[in-house]
Amino acid sequence: MAKFSELCQSILVLNKHNSFDPFINGITSDSRKVKNNYIFAAIKGSNHNGTDFIIDAVKRGAKVVLVENGYKNPAKVSDCIFFQ
């Protein structure tokens, strides 16, 4: 387990929360497998686009969401960190 800031020192953070630095317990691209303090990798697959499942992943406990270049957060999810 590590803090998010320790895992990702040279990434583009899209929304910054000054005091928000969650411990990260895991990472997955399957929103159904997200647990508390996970990173959800919202990537395009052959059948689905992971960005369609961001809200579900955050409800399941994702604290950080990895998005592809150009993502605009239309759902206005604010209780997690987005990065590319």
What does this structure look like?
The chain is α/β, with parallel strands linked by helices and 84 residues long. The protein has a single domain (2-83), classed as Udp-n-acetylmuramoylalanyl-d-glutamate--2,6- Diaminopimelate Ligase, Chain: A, domain 1, CATH 3.40.1390. It is 13% helix and 25% strand. The protein contains 2 helices and 6 strands; from the N terminus they run βαβββαββ. The protein has helices spanning 4-7, 54-60, and strands at residues 2-3, 23-24, 26-28, 38-42, 62-67, 81-83. Strands 3-4-5-6 form a 4-stranded parallel β-sheet, covered by helices on one side. The chain is globular. The protein starts with a strand and ends with a strand.
Write the layout of secondary structure elements.
Elements lengths: L1 E2 H4 L15 E2 L1 E3 L9 E5 L11 H7 L1 E6 L13 E3 L1
Parallel strand pairs: 3-4, 4-5, 5-6
Antiparallel strand pairs: 1-2
